[in-house]
Specification:
heterodimer, A: about 130 residues, mainly beta, four-stranded antiparallel β-sheet, B: about 110 residues, seven-stranded mixed β-sheet, 11 strands
Chain lengths: ~130, ~110
């Protein structure tokens, strides 16, 4: 399974950022997986943006949830990210990732991100 | 949101050293804790899930432990390819959250 992010590399302030993640070598039509987006600002750590769970429910970062929408199009094998009203602080590398899970030795069913795309750089600038 | 705090933020070590990185959660997350490695210019890679389960293909010199609010990632004998940044991440609840990262550098 491979994930490939795509979208404009340059977005103007106050506009919307739209990215796609294309899944190859597998299907989005699975009740096993969640599909999500993570970003990394220059020189900074990883920031979870949000995910669509296997039941179709979206979950978002508390700091971004007023501006973000993540959706899954199984017919196109794509996961989409839309981030509205961007500023320079949204400049980052954006990764998509598959989240899967299994039963841990502790008995918990633990989710983890096991497949990542290579990332796409988005710069917010006029 | 659950806050994840790693220590140290950076660490200098030599090839062959044993190193341990700590991750603390702001509330109990049982063993819903994952570790990732990120080399410069590349995407993160999963190392350990469920606090202590080594992901397929990850060398056995990596190990993880802990439960509740305190966790560790240990590399038993550092190899040149291990110099990277390491992140913990909780999957106990959404929103998922990452630690701020620990950069492991060559001494």
């Amino acid at each position: 399974l491979q994930l490939q992010e795509s979208g404009p590399g340059l977005v103007k302030p106050s506009e919307a950022l739209s990215l796609n993640c294309t899944v190859s070598g597998g299907s989005l039509n699975s009740y096993t997986y969640h599909w999500g987006w993570i970003r990394q600002s220059p020189g900074k750590g990883l920031e979870w943006i949000g995910s669509v769970y296997n039941d179709g429910s979206p979950y978002y970062s508390s700091s971004l949830k007023s501006r973000v929408t993540i959706s899954v199009d199984a017919s196109q094998n794509q996961i989409s990210l839309r981030l509205r009203s961007v500023t320079a602080a949204d400049t980052a590398i954006y990764y998509c990732a598959r989240e899967t899970g299994n039963i841990a030795p502790s008995g918990d069913f633990c989710y983890y991100m096991d497949v990542w795309g290579k990332g796409t750089t988005v710069i917010v600038s006029s | 949101d659950i806050q994840m705090t790693q220590s140290p933020s950076s660490l200098s070590a030599s090839v062959g050293d044993r190193v341990t990185i700590t991750c603390r959660a702001s509330e109990s997350i049982n063993t819903y804790l994952n570790w990732y490695q990120q080399r410069p210019g590349t995407a993160p890679k999963l190392l350990i899930s469920s606090a202590s389960s080594l992901h397929s293909g990850v060398p056995s010199r990596f190990s993880g432990g802990g439960s509740g609010t305190g966790f560790t990632l240990t590399i038993s004998s550092l190899q040149p390819e291990d110099f990277a940044t390491y992140y913990c991440q909780q999957s106990y609840t959404s929103p998922r959250t990452f630690g701020q990262g620990t950069k492991l550098e060559i001494k």
